[in-house]
Specification:
Strand 1 and strand 2 form a beta hairpin. The longest helix has 15 residues. By secondary structure, the protein is α+β, with helices and mostly antiparallel strands. The protein contains 2 helices and 7 strands; from the N terminus they run E-E-E-E-H-E-H-E-E. It starts with a strand and ends with a strand. A 7-stranded mixed beta sheet has the order 1-2-3-4-5-7-6, covered by helices on one side.
C-alpha cells in the first residue's frame, strides 16, 4: 500500500487476516521511519514480522533513504535482535517523541 509518502505492508493469511504489518514513512530529506511493526499474537516467531520489516527497509533504501530510524520497546529483545542483525544500531535520545511505550531507538545509515 503506497499513500502520500509512506509504504505500508500487511502480510495476509489464507483467510485474509493480517499476520504482520509494517510501515516505512518518508520523513523528508532522506530520513525514513519504520513504524507500526507487529505480528498477530498467535503467529509470532513464524517470520512474518521479519518479512514485512525487511520489505519496508528495502522500500526505503530503494526510494532514497540515507537514514532509517525506529522506536521500539526495550522488552522486545527478539525484535531488537532482528533490527540489529540488519545493521541498525541503538541510539540514545533525550526525547522519544511522546511514544509512551517507545524507550529504545535504533538507526541505520544507508
Amino acid at each position: 500500500i503506497l499513500i502520500h509518502g509512506w509504504f505500508g505492508l500487511p502480510a495476509m493469511g489464507i483467510a485474509g487476516a493480517a499476520l504482520a504489518t509494517c510501515m516505512a514513512i518518508d520523513r523528508g530529506e532522506g530520513e525514513w521511519e519504520i513504524a507500526k511493526l507487529g505480528s498477530a499474537p498467535d503467529r509470532s516467531h513464524k517470520g512474518y514480522g521479519k518479512a514485512v520489516f525487511e520489505a519496508c527497509v528495502d522500500w526505503a533504501e530503494q526510494h532514497g533513504a540515507k537514514r532509517i530510524y525506529m522506536l521500539t520497546n526495550s522488552s522486545l529483545s527478539t525484535a531488537i535482535h532482528i533490527y540489529e542483525s540488519h545493521g541498525f544500531q541503538r541510539v540514545f535520545l533525550e526525547d522519544y517523541g511522546g511514544y509512551a511505550r517507545g524507550d529504545y531507538a535504533l538507526e541505520k545509515y544507508v
